[in-house]
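User: Can you predict the 3D structure for this chain?
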Amino acid sequence: MNTSALIAWYERQARDLPWRRDGVTAWQILMSEIMLQQTPVVRVAPIWEQWVDRWPVPSLMAASSQGEVLRAWGKLGYPRRALRLHECARVLAAEHGDAVPADVDVLLGLPGIGAYTARAVACFAYGQRVPVVDTNVRRVVARAVHGAAEPGNPSTTRDLADVDALLPRTRARAAVFSAALMELGATVCTARNADCDRCPLTDCAWVDAGRPAHTGPPRKVQKFAGTDRQVRGLLLGVLRESHAPVERARLDQVWHSDPTQRDRALGSLLVDGLVEQTEDGLFALAGEGDTER
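Assistant: Here is the predicted structure, written as structure tokens:
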């Protein structure tokens, strides 16, 4: 892979994303990485900027309640990420001097931080030479290196080795290359459309092979309408809009078509710790059930 061409392209064409600007801290990059998981940039950017203003350091988030963080999360989806980030903020404030560690292994020990996030923070916040692999990167590598239209099943060992072999030797170029590889998959070599005319890579095994079609099972498209995820979101919406615990009847109003599904969704929110029930049977966001505080 022509790393110089890809880096040069990135330096000309990279999107002006707020978490890429000068002065952004490792904590703020960590927040962006958590938010961006399974959520488009256009939805994340305005929420992230609000969070940076409100919680510029972990200790400020740690001092807020779980409910406040969930309320600020809004409709980003997968709200358990917000709870894990709040838990992570508490650990950073209490055990790491209100700073995000630079070491991948230490990052992996923090609540809610997985293999991708730990390496992304080490790379994008601290400029370390570590492979960073997300869905977009896996797709570019599958096409450019392996000549396949789509990547196979994820394999942490194989995927990290693939990207590590492509990284430039110097730290500074490796960090830029990682961002460029990800940007290419997000904007040019996408799942729906490989825009090869715009691609800066001059050596692509997939193109050289005549762009063979994907022969495996079709990609699963996740639906949202009518799912438990939708019902959970509606229930959380009621609680986000209220600053006091609400009666069950308020929650029942959001989903009449299938009471069993509604009960199941509410039960899962309680199990996940996103919602809590008071002693008198009311419901509130996590951390907001105690009205006497």
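The longest strand covers residues 275-277. The chain has 15 helices and two strands.
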